[in-house]
Prior knowledge:
Elements (H helix, E strand, L loop, with lengths): L4 H6 L7 E10 L10 H13 L1 E4 L2 H12 L3 E9 L2
Antiparallel strand pairs: 1-2, 1-3
Amino acid sequence: MFSDTNRQLRKLSIYKPMNFRIVEIDFDFNDSLEDITEEERDDIVEEVMMTTWEASDGDDLVEEITAATGWSINSIDYCYVLS
């Protein structure tokens, strides 16, 4: 699949993304030119874990979270949410 295929499929009305909840996530907060506080880090993690994410698969989920937060992910644990 091309890297943009999943995004294109989401635009189709027949495409139904899955819902995910994050159980645990580890961001690469060291990969930055600027420092952020521990409180800011905690806020980012809390916001991500409180959100129900739509994605086509685990790789797409990582891309969605990275795009939304601007931070790379070292590791992630998630579960599917039945709609």
